[in-house]
Design goal:
2 domains, four-stranded antiparallel β-sheet, globular
Length: 393
Amino acid sequence: MIYDFDTPVNRRNTSSLKWDVSENELPMWVADMDFKTAPEIHEAIKRRAESGIFGYTVIPKEWQEAYAEWWRKRHGFEMQKEYLIFCTGVVPAISSIVRKLTTPAEKVLIQTPVYNIFFNSIINNGRQVLECPLGYDSEAAEYSINFDELEKKLSDPQTSLMILCNPHNPIGKIWDKETLSTIGELCLKHNVTVISDEIHCDLTDPGLEYIPFASVSDACRDNSITCIAPTKTFNLAGIQTAAVYIPNPVLRHKVWRGLNTDEVAEPNFFAADAAAAAYKNGEEWLDQLRNYIYDNKNTVYSFIKKEIPNIKAVFSQATYLIWIDCTKFLSDLKSDYKNDVSAAKLIREKSGLYLSSGEQFGGNGKNFVRMNVACPRSFVEEGLNRLRKSLQV
């Protein structure tokens, strides 16, 4: 079957967070795709709704089986079904785990720039954010990990938890096995538990594969909690369905208690069926989606290189997000614009193109913007033309 990703869907006036903007604005910010989900998933949801009774729901065995089979087939990782726990979302899970596994004022390490909601999950629970900024090569527009700095911060007795983004949002990097193994060894050495957020794992570029953190070594497996979901992959965020995978029985019990105490372990009426349908029947749709997003990314790279040479796009291996370095553009601005202006704000004011401001991601993000290209090609082209208009000094 050939799926249609080109036809725009009008999402204005639909209570969409992404599209709750002015008529003249084009939103390419929050990580929410402008594609309808796979029709196979839509049909499963409609079948579920046909009963007309939307009562309390339990997790069927098919839910665990669908996750385990997907990871075996797509990622070469044999999951134990009994190690999976349902939760309403990756962010609720992370927040619950922070509360359960750390005490107030302890430090939670994150590698910045990184998904901005990690900050909320830490700060809102009375813990301290410990940033370990990624190294950035501005010439190559490429990020890396400084392991000496990472170990120094992990060795702080107040550091009890690390949140790993695998693949990494917003830079789109797939961490290799050696990198993940080193992180696992350092965290075990310094008694720091790892939460591996792997929500973007299925959105790799064609021909590329991510590595599940728990698959790398005994150290990684036994000292980690993996957060996974079909929501980014299949555009199901509003369904509120996710899972945590925890091989270590002691950690699993603690997390299970935390999720239940926080009331984020019970599914809504559609949550389990939508996830199972995605993993059982969504493979062909996903493969076509990945190719489409890959072409969108290349459209952005080519356009920026040719038409907007005063900015740089960081090459992304995964996600549908592009991290764009606006440092040169900002440095070339006239003095009228230089007073604490953010690139995202200036772009939105000048052209109505709404991108995510890089500052909220920490690290060196102040001079960056994040662009979401999970949308029809016509939106990408319009967004790039607006971007060029905005960045003409």
